[in-house]
Amino acid sequence: MAEISxxxxxxxxxxxxxxxxxxxxxxxxAVDAVSFEIFPGETLALVGESGxxxxxxxxALVGLLKPHAGRIExxxxxxxxxxxxxxxxxxxKLQLVFQDPHASLNPxxxxxxTLSEALMLHGHGDRRTLDxxxxxxxxxxxxxxxxxxxxxxxxxxxxxxxxxxARALAVEPALLxxxxxxxALDVSVQAQLIELLRSLQTESKxxxxxxxxxxxxxxxxxxxxxxxxxxxxxxxxxTEAFFERPxxxxxxxxxxSIPRLRAATHGAKPRLIGEVPSPLxxxxxxxxxxxxxxxxxxxxxxxxxxxxxxxxxxxxxxxxDPSNSAPG
Amino acid sequence: MALLSVSELGVDFxxxxxxxxxxxxxxFELENSEIVGLVGESGxxxxxxxxALxxxxxxTSAVTRGAAHFGGQDLMTLSDTKLRHxxxxRIALVFQDPLTSLNPxxxxxxxxxEVAEVHLGHPHKQARxxxxxxxxxxxxxxxxxxIREYPHQLSGGMRxxxxxxxxxxxxxxxLILDEPTTMLDVTIQAQILDLLRELRxxxKxxxxxxxxxxxxxxxxxxxVLVMYAGRIVESAPTAELFARPLHPYTEALLQxxxxxxxxxxxxxxxxxGLPPRLSLAKVTECVFAPRCARVRVACREREPELRPESAxxxxxxxxxxxxxxxxxxxxxxx
Lengths: 328, 334
Ligand SMILES: Nc1ncnc2c1ncn2[C@@H]1O[C@H](COP(=O)(O)OP(=O)(O)OP(=O)(O)O)[C@@H](O)[C@H]1O
Ligand SMILES: Nc1ncnc2c1ncn2[C@@H]1O[C@H](COP(=O)(O)OP(=O)(O)OP(=O)(O)O)[C@@H](O)[C@H]1O
Ligand code: SF4
Ligand SMILES: [Mg+2]
Ligand SMILES: [Mg+2]
Fold this sequence. Notes:
The complex is a heterodimer of chains A (328) and B (334).
Chain A: E1 12-23, E2 26-38, E3 43-48, H1 54-61, E4 69-74, E5 77-78, H2 84-87, E6 94-97, H3 101-104, H4 111-121, H5 127-140, H6 157-170, E7 175-179, H7 187-204, E8 207-211, H8 215-221, E9 224-229, E10 232-238, H9 239-244, H10 249-256, E11 307-309, E12 313-315
Parallel strand pairs in A: 3-8, 3-9, 6-7, 7-8
Antiparallel strand pairs in A: 1-2, 1-4, 4-5, 9-10, 10-12, 11-12
Chain B: E1 4-15, E2 18-30, E3 35-40, H1 46-53, E4 62-70, E5 73-74, H2 80-89, E6 91-94, H3 98-101, H4 108-120, H5 124-137, H6 143-146, H7 156-169, E7 174-178, H8 186-203, E8 206-210, H9 214-220, E9 223-228, E10 231-237, H10 238-243, H11 248-256, E11 307-308, E12 314-315, H12 321-325
Parallel strand pairs in B: 3-8, 3-9, 6-7, 7-8
Antiparallel strand pairs in B: 1-2, 1-4, 4-5, 9-10, 10-12, 11-12
The structure holds adenosine-5'-triphosphate (ATP) (2 copies), iron/sulfur cluster (SF4) and magnesium ion (2 copies).
C-alpha cells in the first residue's frame, strides 16, 4: 500500500465520543469515550470483539445516531449532533457501506437505478454517459455489467455486498466507512476489491475506516489498527507493529485465535476463557480483566488510561503504564 | 447409507426471458457425524444448493432438477408440510443473512421459546432455560437479560449467533450453516467452532458448512467441495485439498488468500478476468478455461467430467495430477 505522509490536519477527528442506547435491561453504553483521527489517504482498520461497538461508532460518524457525548470534526468543522438536513451536504464526503447490504440497497430498484441515483447525487447527471459509468463501476467490483437490470434479491450474498460498495464509490467520497464489506467474498474476489480500494486511495487520497474481522485483510490494507473491546479502543498502533508486537492482552488473544490453513493444532489453540462480558454490566476496572490471562490485582480496581507505545500508538493496559510496579 | 445424498442437483432461474443456470449437476454425500465444507466463488451456487435441498426456493423463478435423499426420504418429492416438519426437527439451516430468519417484531425470548415449545413440546420455563443456555454457549454475555431484546438491538455478529443458537435448539441431525461466522471476531469464532466439534462428537450431528473462510474449513471440515459456476469442480479430504489442489481454480483460490504472516499481507493474486456468465446454453468447454492459468487446447473441446483421481479425491479438469504439479505458466498470470 502507499506510504502516507501525515499532514498536520486530519480529515476526521473524533474526541471522547460516547453512544448510549436505552434497552429493556437498562442503559447500554455501546461506545465509550473513543478518540482517534483519520488522515487524508489513510486506512484505519477497526477490529474487535463482536458486539464491541464498531458498527455503532460508524453509524454515529455518519450522523445516523446521535452521540451521547463527544466531538466529531470533519476537515476541522464540528459535525456531531447535526440535524438530518444539516448533514445532507456531508453525505458526499462521508459514505458508509453497511454491514447488512439490505440497509444500503433499495429492494425495489434495479442495480442500474441504484447506481445511477448515486452517480447523480455526486453530480454526474449526464444521461448519455450514465449507463457507461454504471457498467464501469460494476466491472470495477468484479460484477458482470450485463446483470445491471437485475434486482438485489437476484444476486448472491457476495454480489450484493459488492453492489453496496459500488454504490458508495459512485459518490466519490473523501472518507469511506466500510463495515464488513469483504466478509461474503471468496478470497479471490476479496483480493480484487482490496486492489481496487488501494488504487483508489493512491489516485485520489481516499481515506477508509475499515471495520473487519478478517485480520488478513487488515494486514494487507490498513496503515493503522484500532482494537475495540466493550465500547473502548483498547489498542491503536501502526499495522506492522500491531502484528509483530501487539500491546494489549486482548489483541494477543485475537492474533492467537486466527485459524490457519494448514492447521496442525486442531482445537489445541489457546482460548479466551470466561463468559463474554455484557455492556449492560461492564466489569469494574479494566473491562478485560475477568478474561485476561495477565490480569493482576490493580486491574480489577482501576480503569487503565491510554499509555503510549511505539510509533504514536497507545494501549489501555496497566502492563504498559510506565509507573506500573507490577510484573510485566 | 449416507445421511444425505444428493445426485445431479440442478437449479435454473428463468426471469424476463433470460435464464441463469445457478446449480448444475451437483452430487455429493454427507455421512453421519461428518463435517463437509462447501467453498467456492461468490455467486457459484452454494446458497442456492442448500436452499434447493430444503425446498426453500418456492416463490422464486427457480426450476429444480435432480434427486436428494435424507435418511431415506426423497426431499425433492416430499410435501411442503413434511418438508417443514423435517426442517423444524431433524434438519436446521442457518441462512447467510441472519435477518431472513429473525422476526423483527419479536424479542429473542419469544422467537427462541416458540421453537422450543412447538418443536420440542417444552413448557415455557424450560424452553427459556434452554434458550438462555444456548445463547451463553454462543458467546452472548448476560443472556438471561439480553434475551428480552429485539433483533435490531443486537450487533450483526450477535444476530448471527442467535441464529446459530436457534438452529441448535431442536438438536438437528443435519445442520447446514451458510457463512455462519462472517460477522464474528476470531476469538468468538473459535468458541463457536469448539461448540460445533463437540456437537458432532457427542450428538453425532452432521454439518454442511458453506464458507469463504478457508481457515475455518481447515479447522473444522473432514472433506471439502469446491464450487465454480454452479458446478463442483473438486472434492477431497481437507488436508489433501490444501496441500495438493488438483484443480486450477482451487489452486488459484488458495493463492489469493492474504498472508497474515507476511508484511502487508504478502502479494495478492486475484484470479484475472470476470466471473462466468451462467446461461442455459449448452456448455462446450471447461467453465474455468477463460480464466485458467493452465488452459490448453483440450480444455476448449468439451466440458470435462467430474472424475475420481483416487477413492476420495475427484476433480473436473483435463490435466493429469502430474501436469498440475508443473509450475504455472507465467505469461498467463496477470
Ligand atoms: N439500536 C440499538 N439498541 C440497543 N442496543 C444496541 C443497538 N444497536 C447496537 N446495540 C448494542 O450495542 C453494542 C454494540 O453493537 P455494535 O453493533 O456496534 O457492535 P459491533 O462491534 O459492530 O459488533 P459485530 O462485530 O458483531 O457487528 C451491542 O451490545 C449491541 O447489542
Ligand atoms: N432469485 C434469483 N433469481 C435469479 N438469479 C439468482 C437468484 N438467486 C441467486 N441467483 C443467481 O444464482 C447464482 C448463485 O447464487 P448463490 O446465492 O447460490 O451464490 P453463492 O455461491 O452462495 O455466492 P456468495 O458466496 O456470494 O453468497 C448467482 O449468480 C446469483 O446471481
Ligand atoms: S489492564 Fe490488566 S486485565 Fe486489562 S488487559 Fe492489561 S493486564 Fe489484562
Ligand atoms: Mg457490526
Ligand atoms: Mg451465498
